[in-house]
Amino acid sequence: MASLIELQTFSSEVGNLTIIEKVLKNGIKRIFYIYNAFNQVRGGHRHKLTYNALTCVSGSCKVYVNNGKIEEEYILDSPDKCLLVEPEDWHTMYDFTENAVLLVLSDRNYEKEDYIYERYADRK
């Protein structure tokens, strides 16, 4: 199941420095970011193999995660919060603020065959 971690951050009078390293056990193969998604829903899939790390570097968004047994909603509202999403985690991102930039790190390159769009039944 997905888990929320706090990224290491160093603060001083000249600003903050947040480090993203060693969050994905297989390293980082792909980096992308989502923006201009105000009033949109993104994601809507799970993976066969890919692990992702999500952090909102500007603004905020919510992430719904369902692994077939547990459903959770996470709020990414600080650049030092990072959501680790496992392959079996069906997820959507939504409620983006107008200035939201969601950074996504993946441990695999894009492969169309890795995506599963069938969602689990909601437990609510």
UniProtKB/TrEMBL annotation:
Family matches, as Pfam families: FdtA (PF05523)
Domain Sugar 3,4-ketoisomerase QdtA cupin as annotated: residue spans: 3-118
Top-level lineage group: Bacteria
Cross-referenced InterPro entries: QdtA_cupin_dom, RmlC-like_jellyroll, RmlC_Cupin_sf
Protein name in UniProt: WxcM-like domain-containing protein
